[in-house]
TrEMBL record:
One of its GO terms (molecular function) is citrate synthase activity. PROSITE patterns: CITRATE_SYNTHASE. Belongs to the citrate synthase family. The keyword Transferase applies. The active site is at H259, D310. PANTHER family: CITRATE SYNTHASE, CITRATE SYNTHASE-RELATED PROTEIN DDB_G0287281. Keywords: Transferase, Tricarboxylic acid cycle. It comes from Methylacidiphilum fumariolicum (strain SolV). GO terms for cellular component: cytoplasm. Pathway: Carbohydrate metabolism; tricarboxylic acid cycle; isocitrate from oxaloacetate: step 1/2. Pfam families: Citrate_synt. One of its GO terms (biological process) is carbohydrate metabolic process. This is Citrate synthase.
Amino acid sequence: MTEATKAGLEGIVAGKTSISTVGKEGLDLTYRGYSIHDLAKKATFEEVIFLLLHGELPTLTQLNEFIDQLMSWRSLPPELQTVLKLIPKDCNPMDVLRTGCSMLGTLEPEKSSSLQLTIAKRLLAIMPSMLLFWYQYHMGKGSIETSSESEKTIAAHILHLLYGHPASPSQIRALDVALILHAEHEFNASTFTCRVITSTLSDFYSAITGGICALRGPLHGGADEAAMEQIIQFKSADEAEVGIKSMLTKKEKIMGFGHRVYKYGDPRSDIIKEWAKKLSDEPSKKNLFAIAERIEEVMFREKHLYPNVDFYSALTYHFLGIPTFLFTPLFVISRTSGWCAHIFEQRANNRLIRPIAEYVGPLPKPFIPIEERN
Ligand code: SDX
């Protein structure tokens, strides 16, 4: 009889990885040994992608070559543009990336696993194009050009496609840091989904599509959108205090709080909170920031729960003028870098992932013919 496993595989070591760790008791997150604090302060998202995919930070020459490659792979094949236009305006944009990734897999199939690095870079480059092409098409902008060579980085490319003009350096850096913070996080639900699919020797696009599907849920990636909806419903910090307490009394979840592995706070939250504060440069934004801080205070006082990466990321995206329903797709664009690294790692030392279950069903019993069943 196996020892009963805690629900949700809590605390179960389900494999080895050299890509990242949340540290002892989740006290610090590192990617390939580099602290998230150093990466968020001193690196760019492109350096972090290179680090995750190749295991080491790039030299300046390697970084420039890497950026040029990503820039050259932003274009959308005509067949993919046709499919994106057919996706309804009111669908969940996570379904745009799920469908777009699957469609790209039919147009540019993975003929050999030796192509995995190329496919990884193509997906990282094209996802912003897919998302914003669909978004702007349904905003009445027609078929926008997505392979613009004017913006060197993914953060700058995303904001330019969204705004229709270049973003400011501080707006670009705020999004760049958010993409760094969301890039990788050990065996979270969506990453583990990618590894399970990879372990069956399925293809690259299937694994990434599975990751997108898992991240869509509000208990995982979808929390950032839900958190924004919760923050924006309050007009003042005092009103938020009353509202959150009432929700807690009704045992409702406050999105953007709590975490399976971080019991003493998510190290990413303090970093992105600083950016939300920097961007709250006018009265209405300052009021929203004050509401968020009060929610944080109430959650600690009442439940001893801390904000996770999603809470202040939501506010940062909102202050960047990003529509709420595009928040989780941004998480996909970032986390695709971590997912790709885990697919490489799983393939390099693969064994089918197949745990066992603790059976709690009926004892063996004789078959009853249908005429005797009442
Ligand atoms: C991400 O895993 C990762 O690494 C994920 C991620 C990544 O980078 O990939 O970090 C990204 O997904 C962050 C998490 C985003 N999700 C949310 O913000 C959704 C709200 N959070 C909760 O649903 C919850 O905290 C989870 C899902 C994040 C973690 O849930 P657990 O570990 O299963 O904890 P639990 O639900 O068993 O809660 C334990 C207790 C319960 O109280 P009791 O019933 O024991 O009295 O804490 C309470 C819960 O009710 N609780 C909350 C709460 N989170 C936990 N109560 C109110 N609001 C919350 N948000």
